[in-house]
Amino acid sequence: MKESNYxxxxxxxxxxxxxxxxxxxxxxxxxxTVDEILINKDSINYFWIPKQKxxxxxxxxxxxxxxxxxLSRTGAPMVAxxxxxxLKDKGYFTTVITLKDGPxxxxxIDFGIPVIVLKDLGIMQYTNSEFEIFNNNLDLDNFIxxxxxxxxxTATLYNIIKRYMNTEKEIIWWIHEGSESYQILAGKMPKMxxxxxxxxxxxxxxxxxxxxxxxxxxxNVLNYGVSxxxxxxxxxxxxxxxxxxxxxxxxxxxxxxxxALKQMDRRIMKQAKFIFIGDAYESDYEGLEIKKxxxxxxxxxxxxxxxxSVPREELFKLYDNIDxxxxxSIDDPMPxxxxxxxxxxxxxxxxxETGTSYYVKDKKNGFVFKxxxxxxxxxxxVYILKNKDKLDVIANEGRKIFExxxxxxxxxxxxxxxxxx
Length: 421
Prior knowledge:
Elements: H1 18-31, E1 36-38, E2 46-48, E3 63-70, H2 75-89, E4 93-100, H3 104-110, E5 115-117, H4 119-126, H5 140-144, E6 149-153, H6 158-164, E7 170-175, H7 179-184, E8 197-201, H8 204-212, E9 220-221, E10 240-245, H9 254-263, H10 266-269, E11 272-277, H11 285-300, E12 304-307, H12 312-319, E13 324-327, H13 336-343, E14 347-351, E15 367-369, H14 374-386, H15 391-406, H16 408-420
Helix pairs in contact: 9-14, 13-15, 15-16
């Protein structure tokens, strides 16, 4: 960590207006000789600044603060990254606050977006000391008032919502969780919210799960977007390659897929290749056991491969060499791997307990099976292998799901409309 000879804020730092606030930030950052600034003397919080230093603020645009729990290369943080880039590109002065540092921080600052790592916010999130946390470092109340709108991403940041309910601050709460998360958060999230908070869910599945658990938020749907990097030429005449990608766990359903493979006629199963990509968490006993079973099965079947997790760039390359993506999850709000597969014009098989299933019509633009039903999944696999001549049309229709719902321009259009309303 480089040493700074000044500090950006303290609890009593008061600005006359949001314009004074941003002019101060821009001036300090653009004249700074370091890449990061301590928010306060002896603070554990850091303000990471864009390397090019030349920040510009369009006073005709709103000021936007995005709050996300972490900056890992996973679903919700990737959504936060895309959102911040769109807003910055459209002239909004956008800042990101996170509880936990991660690899996306560098991408954000390289794009010219300041990032604040507020470890104290993590203390607020995971302890009962919800409102008395900023005495020695950044005062969130003083800081947040200079933003026109706040975008809080994920239900896990419910304490931020509690803190700013019944205030004049306009907040967009963008929830991406499914059933499992709502069970964990039971009794913690507010049952009702105030008019200053607008709730959006990352798909119909997440929205319906939120309602099922009794939360009266009157939410709307805001799906994430994916940039179109093109599709492959269709060729389903050769040996088909099936892929399951994701953390190995009971929730992701690799055990259901394994059971489905065992239920298939062996001669038919041998006509294709099946690839499992992912790792199990060391703390997840069930996941580790599923991984052992997968490895054991692969040793007895040379057309089954079990591979460790790969970087996102490698996964994109792999899409070019697979034909079918399988989602056997028992709770998966809107897996991006499915959206990317539609983009690449691949066949997608998904369970009914995925957000993807809300857009799939069986045997029309993909395949759907009842969650947890390995026998039905097995039947879908056999159908695909026996009906290769029908797959071109199904894959083409699946591509339209991406184009009509998830293409980045669709997300951008809806996001900007929400912010301007």
